[in-house]
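User: Here's a chain of 276 residues. Predict its fold as tokens.
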Amino acid sequence: MWKKVLTWIILAVLIAYVVAISVWAHAEARKNSCKGITIEIVKTEKADSISTKGVLSEINSYPGKILGQQIPAINTREIEKHLKKMPQFEDVVCNFTTDGRLHVKVTPMVPELRVFEDSISYYINKEGKKMQSKASFFVDVPVVSGHFKGSFQAKDLLPVTRFIARDEALNSLVGMVYADSPDNIILIPRIHGHVINFGDTTRLKEKRDALIAIYRKVIPYKGWEEYDTISVKYRGQVVASRRNKFVQRPQNGEFDEPDMEESTLPEIETTETQNP
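Assistant: Prediction complete.
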């Protein structure tokens, strides 16, 4: 009889032990599992408006389990990689807090350029990452237009657009930048009349000084619409193409003399191209 009682007592103790171990194991598992997700959105001056709800929605599309999953089994790098694919996010950092919550720090995309290409429009950041432009979202950034493919992309114009933005005179003058190739970057003034061929992204200050000299020495005498193109792409010279390709022959049968204001530009050689 005592043997049976002892056996039942031992069995009851073992069952209690197993239950206790199970409860303890689950408690420890809960301590080391993801208990929740917190979102931090970095505020920037020029950025899309991203809501916490929107970030959580993107996290929910992550293929792996997060909530309730053991923390060592959650790959934060993969979560970051997943979220960085979203065009609205410029940077994402994920880590776990001491209370077992996943902390997601999101930097919204900061647009540097608005690009018009064919029939579409989009923003790009400093790395060329694209974000669709929306009517409800407008950022005052430089505007560029052109055909960008292969090794020539819209982000390649950033040295020029940044230079223009920093220069008070050019920033007031230029309304848009157009380019189909890296060697013929065209500045389009805000005032209709002519365009400026800025060449490539090199010697920017030299080209700027040559252009300002033209506006001070030539345009006041010739007028804003005398030329259809002013080119400063070549080193040491300015090439101006007349809007009217035909030069009127005076009654005495002689052609006009060269323009004195052009030939006396300081340290600049000015050439006019014309088709007789």
